[in-house]
Amino acid sequence: MKRTKLLLILSIVAMLLVSCGGDSNSSKRVIKSKGKSSTMKKSEKFASSGPVSVAKHKTAPGADPKVSAEMGGAGFEEIAESLGWETNTDNSSDGSPNAEKGGKFTIALNEFPSNYRTVGRLTNTQVNGLMGSLVYESLLGLDTKTLKYKPSLATHWKIEDDKQTFWFRIDPNARWSDGKPVVAEDILYSWKLYTDEGTLSPSTVQTYSQYEEPEIISKYILKVKAKKLNWRLFLYFTGLKIYPSHHLKKVDGKGYMEKYNWKMLPGSGAYVLDESNTIKGKKISFRKRSDYWAEKYPSNVGLYNFDQLDIIVIRDEVLTKEKFKKGEIDFYPVIRAQWWVNEFNDKNPVPSFDALKRGLVKKLKVYNYSPKGHSGIAFNMRKPPFDNIDIRKAFAMLWNIEELREKLFYNEYFKIRSLYPGSIYENKDNPRIDYNPDEANKLLDKAGWKNRDAEGYRINSNGERFELDMMINQGTERIFTPYQEDLRAAGIKLNLKISDGNTTFKAINERRFKIHYTGWGGLFFPNPETSLHSKYADVNNTNNITGFKSDRVDEICNEYDKMFDEQKRIEAIREIDKIVTSSVHYADGWYAPYSLRAVYWNKFGMPDHIIGYTGGWSEPISYWWYDKEQAKKLEEAKKDESITFPHGPIEYDPYGTLKEKK
Question: Does residue 239 form part of some domain?
């Protein structure tokens, strides 16, 4: 089978986590909790423009002269191959060599994070993930066009013949934002944090407990051994976000959760949190580092171009759209198909927004090889009524996705029929459940809800009404009200409860729900274990939110670890896909065939491919740049209505995605 090619700058986080594994804590734990909560202290106010430095320590450039070449110091590159090390000498960048540095980029998200952490409970959110990607780095990246690893914090790596023992050599040039060098000890203490149960993240602990405690060989070299054979364990260890040991030594997991709840550890990445410009609940601001250690590396040409990144928190999607139209936001992923087709119609926009017609604002839809995620209404199968598959099927049959697609979504989306829609892992033989109220009513009768009360709602043998609550986000009533009405016609009372993201996230993690609409990001390498293995079904704060259990899926998950053959993995995932889809633990929703649909103010430059091979909505942060000349022209056009700009194409398929599918 032809391999679907993808590009992913790998950042393995807790939601990718894997299989069984050993003790959940290091046997040599010495760090302790201080037991006091630390609130964020305002730092010095940065200069109004330009890159900044927060370095407090001075470290001479390059390797420590006390470290020999054999131990990773200067001269290591010349002898590495003879010692069995490997690297990737392809230093090409996906950024544009024409990119300009400077300027500000402002986006909006609909929620403020519950914390500033990137490890532990309540961090598996898009905003925490975005913050982590800006500030921290991993050991390696993965170019999935070629499926080859690429240097990041580590320049070289080595896998022993047992396929379980991994070596890494840290780049001697790497520096933390506070000025101290990145060293092997940082990887050790990062691993200790990931395996500390005090972080209240069972899946993370489970994953990284599959390694023995890493062994420091020298200042720049570290060795780690997996406890069992698993094709993903090298991949996952290379994707660890690395944190500074000179801070982690002072806290254990509990102490980290307290001290760094509203404070970010120093990172090695291109940006730092601008605490003085961050307003809790309203805005998160980042500034480019003037002393980013890898700024001049060929692999970073044309990347990380903005001096300032602002994330504005607006909880109402209509208000977000209006603020974009006023120019308070630079870039807006259009979440409603109706707005994309009607309000952001470049040929006939709404009268109040002629900036689009004149080319001051531009539309953009990009197709690439981004894995498509799964979404739908999750059923809590741990307790009645959704422990009954007939009830779950009935609820799925009462959700009229086709009507939503036609009336609300303008056929911009496709109905989901797989955990892995549109990918090589999708099982085309999955059962198809479509809107069918007649069959749904029969299933509800069969399940013991045949009788009705005076208001027409179904009741069981105890006279209890079939009534339940469903938490939804502000602005999504238009999507779920038709479902509420169809359920009402079938004798079920659904109460839609508006809830903010943090409250909902906490309730789902604590399993205080009956049904809930949720979506999951797609993975390049499917990882069914953490979402579907029965050992996570009754554990809070894991991705198995429905309580799904299957002996066969457990068996496949356990075998999956040792499947080094890609075709066998594809077949295994397809089998899981059919088993899980047949269980109807979700009423499947819809997915977008494209990876980015957005509008933006016409003052930015971008590479020809717009975003990366598997990138999504956040990639303009890394790839785009502030075009000073175009920005001047834009300001003139705002004052002079006779000025227009050419529109250019709207749809982009830079990697031939659509052609290959056809």
Answer: yes
Question: Comparing C-alpha atoms, which of 31, 151, 28 is closest to residue 88?
Answer: 151
Give every CB contact of residue 456 below 8 A, 6+ residues apart in sequence. 491
Write down the pLDDT at residue 661: 57
More confident residue, 279 or 524: 279
| pTM of model > 0.85 | no
Q: How far apart are CA 120 and CA 316, in angstroms?
A: 28
> Is the dihedral angle over the CA atoms 439, 445, 447, 452 positive or is it negative?
positive
Q: Which residues pair with 41 in a beta bridge?
A: none
User: For the domain that residue 146 is a member of, what is the CATH number?
Assistant: 3.40.190.10
Total length of the chain = 662
Q: Which of 96-100, 110-114, 654-658 shows the highest mean pLDDT?
A: 96-100
CA angle, residues 312, 110, 345, in degrees to nearest 5 = 90
Burial grade of 76 (CB within 10 A; 0-12, 13-18, 19 or more): buried
Give CA separation, 241 vs 86, 259, 317, 655, in Å. 21, 18, 32, 29
Cα(623)–Cα(303) distance, integer angstroms: 5
Q: Which residues of 170-200 are buried (b: 16+ CB within 10 A; e: fewer)?
A: bbbebbbbbebbbbbbbbbbbbbbbbbebbb
| pLDDT tens-place string over residues 581-592 | 999 999 999 999
Which tokens in the block code for residue 511? 């399993």
Same-domain check for residues 129 and 276: yes
- Asked if 271 contacts 278 with a C-beta cutoff of 8 angstroms, the reply is no
Query: For 359, phi and psi rounded to 5 degrees?
Result: 85, 5
CA distance 563 to 572: 9
Of 90, 75, 247, nearest to 169 (Cα)? 75
Residue 361 tokens read as 């604002």
Do 264 and 355 reside in the same domain of the chain? Answer: no
Q: Structure tokens of 602?
A: 């016409």
List the helix and strand counts (H, then E) for the chain. Answer: 21, 25
Whether residue 34 contacts residue 219, with contact meaning beta carbons closer than 8 Å, is answered with: no
Number of domains in the chain: 3
Q: Is 601 helix (H, G, I), strand (E, B) or coil?
A: strand
| CA separation for the pair 121, 127 (Å, rounded) | 14
Same domain, residue pair 84 and 202:
yes
CB 197 within 8 A of CB 33: no
Radius of gyration over alpha carbons of the chain, in Å? 26
Torsion sign across C-alpha atoms 260, 266, 268, 271: positive
Neighbour tally for 471: CB within 10 Å: 21
* Cα–Cα distance, 186 to 107 (Å, whole number): 32
